[in-house]
Amino acid sequence: MKSKKRILTGDRTTGKLHLGHYVGTLENRVKLQGSYETYIMLADVQALTDNFADPQKVREAVYEVTLDNLAVGVDPNKSVLFIQSEIPQIAELTVFFMNLVTLARLKRNPTVKAEMQQKGFGSHVPVGFLNYPISEAADILSFRADLVPAGNDQAPMLEQTREIVRKFNATYQNVFAEPEIKVGRVPRLVGTDGNAKMSKSLGNVIYLSDSAEVVKQKVMKMYTNPVRKHAHIGASTKSNPVFLYLDVFGTKRHSIRITQLKHQYVKGEVGDVEVKEALIDVLNEFLEPIRKRRAYYEKRPELVIQILKDGTKKAQKEAAATLKQVKRAMQLDYFKDF
Ligand code: TRP
After folding, report:
1. Ligand 1: distance of its center to the CA of 11 in Å?
2. Cβ-Cβ contacts under 8 Å for 66 (sequence gap 6 or more)
3. Could you tell me if the CB of 69 is within 6 A of ligand 1?
4. CB of 50 closer than 6 A to ligand 1?
5. Is 110 within 8 Å of 156 (Cβ atoms)?
6. What are phi and psi of 235, to 5 degrees?
7. How far apart are CA 89 and CA 245, in angstroms?
8. Is residue 276 a contact partner of residue 220, using CB atoms and an 8 Å limit?
9. Top mutation candidate among 41, 49, 119, 198 for ligand 1, by most atoms within 8 Å of CB
10. Which residues, at least 6 apart from 118, have a Cβ–Cβ distance to it below 8 Å?
11. Would you tell me which CATH number, out of the four given (3.40.630.30, 3.30.559.10, 3.90.226.10, 1.10.240.10), belongs to the domain 210-294?
């Protein structure tokens, strides 16, 4: 029996996590881990769907993404951190779900469509990649999650998951409830170059693990507002990523200064450098406690491994219990005493 409601979320292990991940999903999982039973997946199997030829990258990222989660405040006493590839039940559930989804439906997924275009797959898309929304449904439903904190780009995966729930329950037996997405405070964070999305492949990211010096360099190079050739030309602060970040990461303490900078900017009374210096302060203040926690765990690699081991064991138990129910519903329970 579940006492608390449950969260399942996770990250593709393709590299370190950045500010976009923070506002899209990390912030919510940290905030909610006390009130939900929280499972956080290192999605190495999903990472392989578009990085199958780069297993070393995926393996290293499992460790880095674990550190990122611990660094932002995921508490291993409250949340279960586990490795996807260690849970074979997810793969089994994926196979059963594949019967319930058509190829046409998979191809309509807007996030998958955009990613396919970005990766230039065309008609040579690997089956595993196209299939990842089904696999993600299996991630979520293996843990019978109620809530999935995730960025806006995961909304189509949740829609797909709910469709699978309805189809499964109608075809076999009522096993699953429909989970909801919990989108972050900022559903999609712009990149440092002004691109609509912060993304490693676009090279416009600030990592949670960036040093103060690197943050400074990246901010100084940020895209601002190309119509503003001189500081004395007044310009809108809207869609200027420097101001967007100030709004997102500034605390109450910064609000007077930010409001003032906005007024000055619109009137052409402040230069980009001064605004960027304010952002450097804001970001480094935000990142400092994250860096400290990261350093703590970096110095204790055996502890990090133990956290993953313990979490994976718990996750295995839970996924096995779900799969048993699924197999019973599908009349695949041949040897009842196994
Ligand atoms: N697709 C997510 C990402 O791009 C990772 C992920 C895998 C996930 N399985 C999930 C997120 C289940 C939420 C729920 O990072």
Report:
1. 5
2. 42, 81, 304, 307, 308
3. no
4. no
5. yes
6. -150, 160
7. 41
8. yes
9. 41
10. 201
11. 1.10.240.10
Contacts of 117 by beta carbon, 8 Å cutoff, 6+ apart: none
What is the Å distance from ligand 1's center to 54 Cα?
Answer: 19
Question: What is the spatial distance between Cα 92 and Cα 88, in angstroms, rounded to a whole number?
Answer: 6
pLDDT in tens, 252-271: 999 999 999 999 999 999 99
pLDDT in tens, 44-99: 999 999 999 999 999 999 999 999 999 999 999 999 999 999 999 999 999 999 99
The CATH classification number of 6-190+301-329 equals 3.40.50.620
Spell out the domain ranges in the chain: 6-190+301-329, 210-294
CA of 330 to the centre of ligand 1 (A): 26
Rounded (5°) CA angle 324-143-8: 170
| Residues composing the chain | 338
* Cα 19 to Cα 212: distance, rounded to the nearest angstrom: 14
